[in-house]
Amino acid sequence: EQELFALSWMAGSEDPDMVMYPLLHGSQWTPNGPNRALYRNERFDELLTQARQTTDQARRAQLYREAQKLLVEDAPWVFVDHEVQIAATSKRVQGLKLHPSFDLRVETISLR
After folding, report:
1. What are the C-alpha distances in Å from 84 to residues 67, 81, 104?
2. Nearest-angstrom CA–CA distance, 67 and 42
3. Helix locations, 2-109, DSSP H
4. CA–CA distance, 36 with 10 (Å, rounded to integer)
5. Pairwise CA distance, residues 71 & 67, whole Å
6. How far apart are CA 77 and CA 9, in angstroms?
7. What is the total count of domains within the chain?
8. Does residue 99 have a pLDDT over 80?
9. What is the pLDDT of residues 28-86, one digit of tens each?
10. How far apart, in Å, are the Cα atoms of 16 and each of 19, 61, 89, 107, 112?
11. Domain range spanning residue 23?
């Protein structure tokens, strides 16, 4: 028998560290942080730490991909939903820039 609850999270940016570190790093067990799954994997933690310490974006992406593979194998969470968002606009709309997080910056948008 296992405890189960549903939880969602919206990252403050599109950086994978904003979700992976606070929610899954072994140092973030409650009460130190929001790792309520009580997930701990030394290799996973090492990958996240390395990713935090490098400025090479290609290397960071590689480290996070490897960490994601461990996460899927260990399955501390059951991923039940991943929203797909679609945007459409008219030719009259100018200055619309979509970000990976789908954060709309309305101050740049105008109609012609």
Report:
1. 23, 9, 16
2. 11
3. 17-24, 42-53, 57-74
4. 16
5. 6
6. 13
7. 1
8. no
9. 998 889 888 899 999 999 999 999 999 999 999 999 999 999 999 999 987 776 677 77
10. 6, 9, 28, 26, 37
11. 17-74
Q: Does some domain include residue 11?
A: no
Q: Which residue has tokens 């929203």?
A: 83
Least confident of 22-31, 71-80, 101-110: 101-110
Please give the residue that has the higher pLDDT: either 104 or 55.
55
Which tokens go with 75? 């399955």
Given a contact cutoff of 8 angstroms between Cβ atoms, the answer to whether 79 and 97 are in contact is no
* Dist. CA 13–CA 51, nearest whole Å: 16
Residue 91 lies in a domain: no
Q: Which two tokens stand for residue 16?
A: 């994978």
Query: What pTM, to 2 d.p., does this model score?
Result: 0.69
The answer to the question of residue 93 being in a domain is: no
Q: Which amino acid is at 34?
A: P
